[in-house]
Every structure is written in C-alpha cells, then in structure tokens.
Design brief:
140 residues; 6 helices; Dna Ligase, domain 1; alpha+beta; two-stranded antiparallel sheet; single chain; Arc Repressor Mutant, subunit A; 16% strand; 2 domains
C-alpha cells in the first residue's frame, strides 16, 4: 500500500499519467471500501469525497491502476470483478459459500519469484494466488 497522497501522485506520474484529483479520490476510496471491493462499492466511497464522480470514471481509473501496478484485478467465475489494493505477495482466501475474501500473508511465498527466474528463466510480472474453500464463519 502506498501510505501517503504524495506516494500515490508520484507513482501515477512515473507511469506517464496525470495524477488528477479524481484518480486520488478513487485510490483512497479503494482502501476505504474494505476488503476486496467491487467497482460499485468503490464508487460509493468515492462519491462521498466527490459527488460528481461517475461509475465509468471509477472503472476507468481502476483499469489504469491495474495496468500500472497499483491494484490487482480479481476476476471470478461468475464474471464479477473485485479489486485488491494490496499488490504485495500474499494469498487470497476465497470462501465458496459467502464469497468473502481474506488476505493471508506467507513470507515463504516471497521466495517463489526470484527462484522462478533463477531456476527456469521465468520473470514474474504479476501474480494472483487464490485458495478456495469454506471460511470459518460459514463452517460454524
């Protein structure tokens, strides 16, 4: 996660894009919306800061953020899309019953990317590690 507005602006500018106020609002809303929100949830939070922001603007900015590595898109079998602002290496635990998504950090997984390039010459450009099952809430 980028911890300050300045870091967000710098990352967007380094990618060759303008750091507009609406882009900043969308990025901040992504974090405020909670765990792995969809575009509607992000739009709801963005609208609190900028009532004029459209759903299309939110969607376009999320696409840009995905392209420049600020967010990870998570597509699901039903065609829905959720967004993960945590682009550091982690596992997403997805409940097959309720759809809840939890992050699970696993330090040993950070070794995978360097090992792939050393052992088989494969350079990791992006990753999405997802484990499906039944969460503790649905199991009880």
């Amino acid at each position: 996660m980028l911890s300050s507005r300045e870091e967000i602006v710098e990352t967007i500018r380094k990618s060759g894009h303008r750091a507009t106020s609406q882009r900043i609002v969308v990025y901040e809303a992504l974090w405020k919306a909670g765990s792995h929100p969809n575009v509607s949830e992000i739009h709801k939070y963005a609208s609190k800061s900028d009532p004029t922001i459209s759903l299309a603007t939110v969607y376009k900015n999320l696409q840009l953020f995905s392209e420049i590595g600020l967010v990870r898109e998570m597509g699901f079998r039903d065609g829905s899309m959720r967004y993960d602002p945590d682009v550091d290496f982690h596992i997403n635990l997805v409940c097959n019953k309720c759809g809840r998504i939890e992050d699970f950090d696993c330090i040993s997984l950070e070794e995978i990317a360097p090992n792939l390039i050393q052992k088989v010459g494969f350079e990791v450009q992006s990753h999405n590690f997802e484990v499906r099952g039944i969460c503790s809430r649905c199991r009880s």
